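Supplementary Text 2. Reproducibility record for the structural model of the 386-residue chain.

All settings were left at their defaults, and a single model was retained for analysis rather than an ensemble. We include the record here because the model underlies the residue-level annotations in Supplementary Table 4.
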Amino acid sequence: MAMTELPSSIGRLKNLGIIDLINCENLLTLPDSIGNCMRLTYLRVRNCSKLYKLPDSLRSLQCCLGKLDLAGCNLMEGAIPSDLWCLSSLKSLNLSENNICRIPVGITQLPMLTVLKVNHCLMLKEIPELPSRLRRIEAHGCPGLEMLLSDPTHLLWSSLLNNFKLEIENLRCNGDCYSSRGDKFYIIIPGSSGIPEWVTRKSMGREVSIELSENWYEDDNFLGFALFFHLLPLDGDDDNNNDDADYKFKRMYPCCIYGLSTSHGDQSILIFGLSGHIDCRLYIIRSLEDSYRYMEFPHVYHKVGTSDPTLGVLYVPQTAISTEYRSKEWNHFKASCNPNYRCGDKTFEVKSCGIHLLYAQAQAPDKKRHDHPTEDDPHRKISRHV
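Retained model, structure tokens:
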């Protein structure tokens, strides 16, 4: 589109709830009058590559704006105004495919933020302390973040652990009453290096098991599990090479299931899981006609694939395990993943997976471990940092 700016009269639309600007390649800025749209809940400015400034008046939307999508706008570090951190109602923020080196520390001032997407920010090298309610992070395709994985004491992991502790407090009802309700808590990060060495137990393939001590459920210091899944793109995968309609339909809606199960004898129960597919790259509407079709058929968006390895991490609180499985008999746990993971037009396979045990306080070196490794287990030495 040739539009370079929105008319300032848009501020007169007092009941406007959604502004959706996609592929406006000549759009330079948004009018200050947008701050007068006091019922605006969703602002999406996607793939507007010449956008260089956001209006300071965004702070006027602090009580209404719940979702802000600025993906693919080539925003530089200084293009994100400090007023953005005044949006106290913001729940979802998408800064994917922008030229930012770090996420501003002001993000901690967003008390309601639960979802943060910074996929394919090639210059991104740092993630600061996170808002306390953040439950989902997508940072796929950010090569500068690879170094974060090797250090279990990095601020990213410690901040996630603190948020996980708060989530557990929210899940606890009282005493021995536990609830499995609550937000799913997971992150998607670069995975070229595979699963970090400090993870408690690792295994090649789609599943990994761990056996805890018989009194695992009595330890108040034991918070739960972090499940790690390392996914790699399949070589030669290309939907365009197969013209079978049924084939394409099945692959259009993949189901990737990350889960934790427990077993006793020949009984096995899935106790916690996350299903669906993660779209790490942006959807791009190729034409106005496609945008109308999308209202009925979301899959007509053009999906841009990526060949970047991925590491998915799902946090599972032990409080989410129902009372009937909190006993010494149910001390065998298994993390597993369905291999049907899609990223745009690419298929990923599960290369390896892992389970890491999480504690409120670091374990003393001589304290009895919850897990029981074998003598030839290459991962007997575990980190006490996380």
